[in-house]
Amino acid sequence: MNLLRRYPFTIALIVLVLASASHPLPPIVDAVTGAPADADLARPVDYVVAAPLSNVLDALTFLSLDRARALVGTWLVALVLWGALRRGSVWRRMARAVIGPVVLVGLAAAAVLLPRPVPRLVVPDPSATTVIDYHAHTAASHDGRRGWTALDLARWHAVQGFEASYVTDHNLLLADDSPGLAEAPIPLLPGAEWSVYGQHVLALGEEVAINRDPYNNNTRGMLGIFAELHRNRALAIASIPEYWLNHWDDLDAFVKAGVDGFEIMNCAPKAIGFPPQARARVVALAQKRNLLLIGGSDNHGWGKVTCVWNLTWPSARGLAANRVLARPLALLQGESPVWTAPFSQPWVMLRTLNWPERTSWLTWILVVLIYRAVPRRAGDPGGIGFMARSLSLKILRVRRPPPA
Hints:
The structure is a single chain. This protein is α/β, with parallel strands linked by helices. The chain has a domain of 216 residues: TIM Barrel (Alpha-Beta Barrel), CATH 3.20.20. Helix content is 42%, strand content 14%. It contains 16 helices and 12 strands. The strands form 2 sheets. Strands 1-12-11-4-5-6-7-8-9-10 form a 10-stranded mixed beta sheet. The chain has a two-stranded antiparallel sheet with strand order 2-3. The two termini are 41 Å apart. 37% of the residues are buried.
């Protein structure tokens, strides 16, 4: 009871980590059906050892723009109040009120900028399918990360289990002499993302530059780009969020004009919140018309982890040619109201932990709890060495220097 009174938040976190195990979520699901996928995520050892940090950074990466604002804004206010209202001197309360928000902002920046270990998709029969990304960018795109080369992109994909990726830079073709292309660990396939009248169109296999002017005047003119891409022997895929936000009433016209398929999952903050009801409508349309459904990381060099993979069967066509696999934490962005983000994102993150990750969480929590709860004696050294004495672990006992 004394521990509960002194460390209520720590005890509550232990309870949540354990309680989440009674309502687990699969690590990867089919984005169309929501059913668990016959695939798994292999977590590197360093990812598991640092699971509390790894999982939190992933959870911050997989946020829609609106939910990111809600989560960060709410927690910033909560941390300021928590620090300012606790007991202590004015300077100590001010320090606490500043440190919490600084740590949160630092974590958000780390999720975007810092390299870190990431999970890798593992499929039961690698020879039957190809794990591919249909939507990715280099620094050649106007919003790409500076210095993000084709080699960087290929390495980013390879470490997460992709076996190939299209390079779909904004209104640019993949140059044969792109830096690092020859050293890429996986094949990088030609493509482009053409911007035409409020719509982005993924041109998969595109090797011929087009004049976009005829397709930028109105919706009817824009639809002509699909035939143009077919003449270039490229597949034309409508990407999100553009068709969702700008052309939602034109989907049937897209089909009549010859669109080959639709993107239904995208990891970018502006698109990850695609609602399940909207996805269901597009899936139904694709099933009726035998259209390709894809997912795209939409990686621009920002953020170090993907939320979606594709299993493709090269010999198949249309709907049967591809299967979209996504992480549940990413699908949540379109399913839950924006205002729930401060608590629903952490809760779903905990539910997706496997037991090695959960054990890592509990271990770190207990280490911190013991460090804070075990009383020190006069002369005990700084750091965690004093824990050895306090826990009677004689092998690790810290020897004190003899008195002068």
